[in-house]
Amino acid sequence: MSAITLVNLHKRFDDFTAVRNTDLVVGDGRFVVLLGPSGCGKTTTLRMIAGLELPTSGQILIDGEDVTALRARQRDIAFVFQMFALYPHMTVRNNIAFPLKNEHVPRREITARVDAAAHMLRIEDILDRKTGGLSGGDRQRVALGRAIVRQPKAFLMDEPLGTLDADFRELMCLELRKLHDQLNATTVYVTHDQSEAMAMADDIVVMNQGEVLQAGAPHEIYHFPATVFVGNFIGSPPMNFLPVDGPVAAGTTQVQVHGAGIAVPHCNAAAERLLLGIRPEHVVIDEQGALRGKVIADEFLGSHQVLMIETAAGVVRARVGKEVRLAAGAPVGLSFRKERVLLYDAMSGRRLPAAVLVDAETGDVHG
């Protein structure tokens, strides 16, 4: 398998910029998910890696080789489409074997590769059935089998689970990740579903309006979102963002939110307008809390609940234990776990650097 490198990749369609000045490295054997809303540029990026779209400018390297101007068939990649793109009049065996026949691979080797892929995907029992009558899950496995037998340098997948129902999609997430580990494959996977991304990815690349906003491990993306957009897009419920009173000087350890003093990690930058970001699970119901509000809604989720609390600074979501009992209209005080508070420039939407931010799960230090 191979590393994929994008250098200053740019794509325009007439007056519309689909992908702008993207730099990205997909490590050898990594499962990387391009994540973002519809129209963010993730599928266009994938199609440029595949050779199905040519970039307006920039470079694409696979295993160190510049493939920017090469046709798709010259790049030694396998592409799995959302709609499977199978031949309904052919059997499963012939669908899987089709790309090998086009490459004039010897018949004995074709049979061996197809049998090996079918065993890996647990579809030996349907090899002689036509694909037109198969379930969505079986057709997905056939499409994956057709990609696997090629033994490509990289697998590219464009929302391959998008047509499946929720329960089966969750199962297929686990199957795809297991398959990736078995093959030690380099995989680039496109989705707009953060649950898929969190379940499968080694690295997540969050995109919006043609730009890469943040790339990193799932826990890093979740706990230290680089922008307000990432904090809103990742997480259910999303991160809370509250306006900070007045400008903040570098070195501050406390900010005011509608007059309430909130302790924050040592901040290394100054800003005129700030937003305080805090995940709902790091909001504490605290009788002595400086920020006051009242409960306006309660979403019970079995193992926990999410309270919607109206404050003078805006609505705050707090994730609390299922045992908490607070009726609508109940007054509450709120405090925030200091080490989990993040500050964002309200103008650019980007996170301000702090002296030390330690990931409690990994021990990694972030600035």
TrEMBL record:
GO molecular function: ABC-type transporter activity; ATP binding; ATP hydrolysis activity
GO cellular component, one term: ATP-binding cassette (ABC) transporter complex, substrate-binding subunit-containing
A matching Pfam family: TOBE_2
PROSITE patterns membership: ABC_TRANSPORTER_1, ABC_TRANSPORTER_2
Alphabetical keyword list: ATP-binding, Cell inner membrane, Cell membrane, Membrane, Nucleotide-binding, Translocase, Transport
SUPFAM superfamilies: MOP-like, P-loop containing nucleoside triphosphate hydrolases
Gene3D superfamilies per the UniProt record, alphabetical: 2.40.50.100, Nucleic acid-binding proteins, P-loop containing nucleotide triphosphate hydrolases
Domain ABC transporter: 4-234
GO biological process terms on file: carbohydrate transport
This protein's name: ABC transporter ATP-binding protein
Organism encoding this protein: Caballeronia mineralivorans PML1(12)
Classification lineage: Bacteria, Pseudomonadati, Pseudomonadota, Betaproteobacteria, Burkholderiales
